[in-house]
Design goal:
By secondary structure, the chain is mainly α. It has one domain. The longest helix has about 30 residues.
């Protein structure tokens, strides 16, 4: 089934949808970087290589997330059911919003739900958290791929 879904990705609808979703996710990840310390702040404090790494991670994460969106759309079209692995990219975005935001905002948010000073400082401008978010997205992709290859369809009476 996954090979069928991959062949569907060549259709104009999926190319346009993928491009739009890629731009949205890339914009979101870039916005989160800007809300953290910004690229100029990263260059001053950590150097150009951290900025290049963050931008490359943003592109990779946006591409995988957009591809997962397209896989989920194709899966719904073929089976009428959405794969459960698609929620992981959303979880990674929420995780990113909680960790890439300014430290004072994150501490204030966590303290309102009872976790005081959980994040005192974000090392390397949040890079470890971004790597964890990438790991979540990759897990979600493989989960979605597994689900698309092991579809259980209802038997019609």
């Amino acid at each position: 089934m996954f090979s069928t879904i991959l062949s569907m990705q060549k259709e104009k609808k999926y190319i346009i949808q993928g491009a739009i979703v890629f731009v949205v996710f890339l914009g979101l990840y870039t916005l989160l970087d800007q809300l953290n310390v910004g690229y100029s702040g990263m260059i001053l404090e950590y150097g150009l290589f951290l900025v290049i790494g963050n931008v490359l991670l943003n592109i990779i994460m946006a591409f995988i997330s957009a591809f997962m969106w397209n896989i989920s759309t194709a899966l719904v079209k073929l089976t009428g059911k959405e794969g459960k692995g698609s929620f992981v990219s959303s979880l990674a975005v929420v995780f990113g919003m909680l960790t890439y935001g300014c430290t004072s905002c994150v501490i204030a948010f966590f303290s309102t739900i009872g976790i005081t000073f959980a994040v005192a400082a974000l090392p390397l401008a949040g890079l470890p958290y971004k790597l964890f978010a990438l790991l979540l997205i990759i897990i979600g992709f493989f989960w979605l791929k597994y689900e698309s290859n092991h579809i259980k369809c209802k038997v019609k009476d």
